[in-house]
Amino acid sequence: MTDPIVYLNGGFIPLGEAKVSVLDRGFVFGDGIYEVIPCYNKKPLRLAQHLQRLQNSLDAVRITNPHTNTQWQAILTGLIDKNGLGDQSIYLQVTRGVAKRDHFFPKDTPATVFSMTNPLATVDTHAFSRGVAAITLEDIRWQYCNIKAITLLPNVLLRQQAADRDAYEAILIRNGTITEGAASNVFIVSQGIIKTPPKGAQLLPGVTRDLVVELAVANRLPCQEIDFSAAELFAADEVWLTSSTREILPVVRLNDRSVGPGVAGPVATRLCAIYQGYKTDLNRGTIV
Length: 288
Ligand code: PDD
Hints:
By secondary structure, the chain is an alpha+beta fold. It has 2 domains: 115 residues, Aminotransferase class 4, branched-chain amino acid transferase, N-terminal domain (D-amino Acid Aminotransferase, Chain A, domain 1); 159 residues, D-amino Acid Aminotransferase, subunit A, domain 2 (D-amino Acid Aminotransferase, Chain A, domain 2, Alpha-Beta Barrel), CATH 3.20.10.10. The protein has 8 helices and 15 strands. Strands 7, 8, 9, 10, 11, 12, 13, 14 and 15 form a 9-stranded mixed beta sheet that branches. The protein has a 6-stranded antiparallel beta sheet with strand order 2-1-6-5-3-4. Helix 5 links the parallel strand 7 and strand 8. It is globular. The two termini are 34 Å apart. The structure holds N-(5'-phosphopyridoxyl)-D-alanine. N-(5'-phosphopyridoxyl)-D-alanine binds next to helix 6 and strand 13.
């Protein structure tokens, strides 16, 4: 297998040649932020929204954006062109750069910019209707979950607990209220109403989440951005996860109990079809 091409600090190079100093603050402190952008048929989905969230994360951690949006776009295009066709998920990471270990921000240190692309599995209708299992766990993370920080140790520990119980995702509860998944946003359907928690510091403002809300509203499906309790989650007719890499993913088992009839529900199935239609329009160039 040929070495994929990655982007590091201004150049496109084979993955095996991409090296970062051990003093990089991403390595030493987890001092950086990231983005994951899905690309279908070479076209990034919701690029403007991903670049805006990248900017918001950089502002929140006080790292100057090293690139203009046009430069970011050139990095994405370069990676897509150099790594071949097919749907891709592009990972972008910016850290506070390389400096002697000291908690204080270093002066005049350029940020480290790294980007890679990985194949994105297209939606398989059988896997969709089979859905996944999830468990609920206490949200042990910090108070700035809206920042897409690379410091993901709590998320890693939470998701591994899910894996240890043969589940795909951990759905997180803070003060009795659902926040999100360890690597996804959460939706429920209750008495015909789609609900997802409102945006705020307790969850990542998912780009997929926003698109799903937008598509639900545009298709006149009742949808509320509203907090819901763990009890409401357990009683829901449908539970789904959303993320850039998994789009809409039905949860059919929750803490070893069936959600609804134990297969993808009708609202998730409808919205998934609408979402696929949106991607087709994107590919045809009918939307940007
Ligand atoms: N994760 N919440 C968390 C904590 C996440 O890590 C993610 C995505 C989401 C969904 O956001 P979006 O729809 O913009 O992908 C919500 C990515 C995919 C990851 O860390 O790999």
